[in-house]
Amino acid sequence: MTDAEEKAPPAADRAYALTKELVLTGALPGGHLFSEGEIADRLGVSRTPVREAFLRLQAEDLLRLIPKRGAVVVPVPPGEAEDVLDAREAVEIGAVRRLLRRPELVPAAVEALREALRVQQERADAADLHGFAEADEAFHRTLVEAGRNALTTRFYATLADRQRRMSVHALGPIPGQIPVVLREHAELIGIVEQGDEAAFAFALRAHLDGTHRR
């Protein structure tokens, strides 16, 4: 076995990562039926690790397994998007409220947010929708991490996959919305820097409405 083979992730992990990425980016859309063999052929592995990956993704409510046929991508359930947005709004506003109680932490938080926005701008310039969606999630997660609440930070991380999927769905058909998202993110950073909690809550709600509740 070569050094590269020894360092390669297990086949089940590679099958899991590939399939999950295809679902989250919309390459495998909701309702799509596909087989273990399709993933196995792409990776050059047997079906056994792919079956293990599918079971993991079924536990995450991304796939529904159909005996002897394969798996169906689970569409986003009605109402789930609204649930995610409500949870995000509550957590992000709470994080900024907590941050602003400690003004000495604001400069570092603003710097981290600007770096997250820079990465997002790079993805936009490269017309990389999937990378942009990932960077969008990272920007908002940076807001939450700035609040330094370990419990809400861990909870927020559980929303990451849903956020990416929602962003691709919302922005893919309307690429002209991407510059709006970037501008609104810059405005959110400015509000945090100014220390205006009420203005942040208003701006965040408008931002989520404009992106996801159109």
Structure, described:
Helix 7 (129-146) crosses helix 9 (160-171) and helix 10 packs antiparallel against helix 11 (197-212). The chain starts with a helix and ends with a helix. It has 11 helices and 3 strands. It is 71% helix and 5% strand. Strand 2 (63-66) and strand 3 (70-73) form a beta hairpin. The protein has helices spanning 3-7, 11-24, 36-43, 47-59, 80-100, 106-125, 129-146, 150-157, 160-171, 177-194, 197-212; strands at 33-34, 63-66, 70-73. Mean pLDDT is 92; it is low at 1-6. It has 2 domains: 3-73, Orthogonal Bundle (Arc Repressor Mutant, subunit A), CATH 1.10.10; 80-212, GntR ligand-binding domain-like (Four Helix Bundle (Hemerythrin (Met), subunit A)). The protein has 214 residues and is mainly α.
Q: How many domains, in number, for the residues?
A: 2
Biggest sheet strand line-up: 1-3-2
CATH topology of the largest domain: Four Helix Bundle (Hemerythrin (Met), subunit A)
Quaternary state of this entry equals single chain
Order of helices and strands: HHEHHEEHHHHHHH
Backbone shape: elongated
Q: What summary fits the major beta sheet?
A: 3 strands, antiparallel
Uncertain stretches of 5 or more adjacent residues: 1-6
- Helical proportion? over 70%
CATH architecture classification of the largest domain: Up-down Bundle
Strand content: under 5%
The end-to-end distance, rounded to whole angstroms, is: 54 Å
Gyration radius, rounded = 19 Å
Mean pLDDT equals 92
CATH superfamily of the largest domain: GntR ligand-binding domain-like
Structural class: mainly alpha
Look at the structure and give the CATH class of the largest domain. Mainly Alpha
Count the strands? 3
| Count of helical stretches | 11
